[in-house]
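Is this the right way to post structure tokens for a design question? Let me know if I should format differently. Anyway, here goes:
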């Protein structure tokens, strides 16, 4: 059934007419048409064109090479849940471009496309000149440990500052290690500092809504869930 047209209020532009789709309890509002125009303007802006190079490079430098250059058109939506997650991702990307800083959690089994969709988001916002950074928890923790050695070339706060800077930070493979208090503290610090600086973070995990509490502190989860709750990837592996 076609959803009916409703009146929504955009914080910036006021009332507009649009549709709200409800897929398995996640409500996704159509974007305000004036915000849509704003996104087009940002994309065509001369300043964006200068920044775009750096932004695309940022994706190239840290995200998995196999997903670079992919767009939302490459995301197959044969089922309703896949369509829902695409819509959530499109809306998340649009909001980042418009300066909204709310974060997100992707949760689901192996091979369900979490890393793929995260990279598409990074590709998408790079077109608007926004810089993204991708880290796996395991390599982040390894890097942090190496700063404790004597004569280390970088400090823990160097790494911290580097991860707070980008417009979007994707933290992948959260929850693979067992019971690491140190990991919880590191991730909460990063997520919290980004939150305080109005910068969105996307956390990806195989853990479900219950077990995620073993890997992130309540404070971190609270900040991450602000946008859309936990986005579930609840289908079989696509590998
Ligand atoms: N909706 C989709 N459309 C097209 N390809 C997809 C889709 N979902 C997943 N894939 C493909 O499935 C494969 C696995 O995706 P990806 O690496 O993102 O999984 P993942 O959820 O991150 O898994 P893991 O938890 O093991 O890291 C990739 O080759 C990806 O291109
Ligand atoms: Mg992955
Ligand atoms: Zn608007």
């Amino acid at each position: 059934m076609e959803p009916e047209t409703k009146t929504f209020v955009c914080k910036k532009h006021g009332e507009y007419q649009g549709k709200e789709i409800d897929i398995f309890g996640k409500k996704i509002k159509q974007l305000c048409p004036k915000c849509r125009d704003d996104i087009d303007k940002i994309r065509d802006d001369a300043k964006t064109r200068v920044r775009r190079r750096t932004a695309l490079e940022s994706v190239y430098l840290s995200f998995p090479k196999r997903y670079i250059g992919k767009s939302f058109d490459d995301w197959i939506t044969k089922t309703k849940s896949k369509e829902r997650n695409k819509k959530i991702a499109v809306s998340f990307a649009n909001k980042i471009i418009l300066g909204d800083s709310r974060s997100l959690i992707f949760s689901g089994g192996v091979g369900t496309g979490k890393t793929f969709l995260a990279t598409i988001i990074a590709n998408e916002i790079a077109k608007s000149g926004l810089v993204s950074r991708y880290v796996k928890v395991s390599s982040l923790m390894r890097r942090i440990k190496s700063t404790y050695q004597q004569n280390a070339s970088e400090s823990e706060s160097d790494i911290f500052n580097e991860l707070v800077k980008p417009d979007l930070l994707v933290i992948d493979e959260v929850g693979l290690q067992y019971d690491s208090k140190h990991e919880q503290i590191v991730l909460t610090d990063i997520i919290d500092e980004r939150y305080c600086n109005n910068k969105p973070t996307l956390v990806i995990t195989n853990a479900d809504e219950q077990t995620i509490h073993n890997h992130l502190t309540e404070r971190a989860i609270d900040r991450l869930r602000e946008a859309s709750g936990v986005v579930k990837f609840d289908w079989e592996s696509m590998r």
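Format looks fine. Someone answered above. Worth noting: The chain has a mean pLDDT of 91. The two ends are 33 Å apart (CA to CA).
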